[in-house]
Amino acid sequence: xxxxVGSHDILLVTLDTLRYDVAVELAEAGRxxxxxxxxxxxxxxxxxxxxxxxxASHQAIFAGFLPTPAAPGPHPRLFAASFxxxxxxxGGTFVYDTPDLVSGLAEAGYHTVCIGGVGFFNRxxxxxxxxxxxxxxxxxxxxxxxxxxxSFENQIARAERVIxxxxxxxxxxxxxxxxxxxxxNWFHLPGATREAGDSRDTHAAALVHVDRHIxxxxxxASSRRRCFAIVCSDHGTAYGDDGWTGHRLGHESVxxxxxxxxxxxxxxxxx
Length: 271
Prior knowledge:
By secondary structure, the protein is an alpha/beta fold. Helices cover 29% and strands 21% of the residues. The chain has helices at residues 20-28, 33-36, 54-62, 101-107, 127-130, 151-165, 200-221, 252-255, 266-269; strands spanning 9-15, 45-48, 68-69, 79-81, 94-96, 110-115, 137-139, 171-178, 227-232, 238-241, 244-246, 256-264. It has an 8-stranded mixed β-sheet with strand order 3-2-12-9-1-8-6-7, with helices on both faces. The longest helix is centred in the C-terminal third of the chain and has 22 residues, at 200-221.
């Protein structure tokens, strides 16, 4: 990461609440081609979430604790705060002398931008202001939130506008919290109803919807220079698994998440 930071733009996308098993099934079935073409060998990496709900997980992610590979470690991290005795800080880790990755990248010359999705990014109260408050620039509107069927398209349009207004020489750290997977998501599946509510199938349909549009986000993020992208879930959610529903609980469907990182090239953005 020490070769990436300072030379590349950086994109972090959290597909809020996305289950690992659903992500894998859709990739294998060819239903998310725009994501799959960027996944190493076309496959998601299985990882463990650092938290069981959005706020806790993002606090950890912004501290440099991305989802952890689901195998015995220790696993060297991409980013880490300077911390004596850290067993996951390695030679390739970008180390910063600030409390969080966002301010660490800001000190390295990045303009930091948050495009929020779920309520923890809505800035409508003190709690919803903590995470977006880490960034130079933060955006949230009702049309970016969980109740909008077009939330992701609206978020992308804002990202395109923000990127288009930046000076060409300015390095960018762009964070997008995608709310489309989060409940309610029934409206992404044709024929589903509000009365029937959400299900594993409507959750899958939401990911297909996100995949349909995510190429625009990747193109915008790499339109000025090569971009290092991280795409992952912050936690999963249960749809009646073993009797459990929702998240902020200790079930496999919540703790196991999909993860990938890869490079986006400007040549692809120009196609």
